[in-house]
Amino acid sequence: MKQTSGAAILTSKVVKYLFMLFFVLIAVGPIVWAFISSFKTYAEINSSALSWPSSFNLENYKAAFKFAPIAKYFLNSVIIVGCSVLVTVALVAMCSYIISRFEFKCKTLIILLISASLMLPAQAISQPLFAIFQKLGIFDTKLGLIIVYSAMGIPMSFFVMTSYYKTISTALEESAYIDGATFLQTFIHIILPLAKPGLVTIALLQFINTWNEFYFALMLTSGDTARTVPIALNYYMGTFANNYSALFAAVVMTVLPTILVFIVLQRQVMESLTAGAVKG
User: Fold this and answer.
1) Residue 90: CB partners within 8 Å, gap ≥ 6?
2) In the chain, where the domains are located
3) How confident is the model at residue 278 (pLDDT cuts 50, 70, 90)?
4) The domain 61-279: what is its CATH number?
5) Fewest Cβ atoms nearer than 10 Å: which of 39, 145, 235, 254?
């Protein structure tokens, strides 16, 4: 019986690790393949998609900057995404705290309206947004995309932070009030530091979603003034039609920021998810 039990445990472990390895390969494989291909020449890519490059150099990356204004699109993305993350985190941090801590009229209605916005497809509001932005003079501007991306990120971030605030004991706030702290002092000096993992989580989600966003970035821009990196890859696909190695280099440079940001912030994200799980 012991031998049978040991064999069953070993088999389950092998199956588990094979299952995990399968999904790791699906997730990481395309990124690794694109990274390796970014060092290949055009002839090497056409000859074999899975072969190693003859040499590792940065010629393809130089070509990517030469044939397309990737640097300008990167700067646009950094400005637009950075501002949208700051706006979303600032608004959600305050709004979610009020919703999670206080009872007031229309609270349920506000939550329902935010929930309904999650079910609203982007295509349903694209035409009204296009018309409004043209009337306001913010079509094809960074400000227009910042407004749209901030509004898109608020609903999901709101529910993440509302759940996280509920994991923080109200006894801490009551103690602060007894010691003479005001509402703002309690929120800024006690609640926000404790909510740091949750804030980092919504900032990371907002960063990834807006950095990779394509639909509104295409619809609400017409030139290079506010075009972001995803649009640049699509727009210059024709430019790279005979230079796939430069295209792979551009793809790697586009994907790399989201990977690096997640690696840096993964500890805070795990803390946020763990806190929510323990509370539940």
Assistant:
1) none
2) 2-37, 61-279
3) very low
4) 1.10.3720.10
5) 235
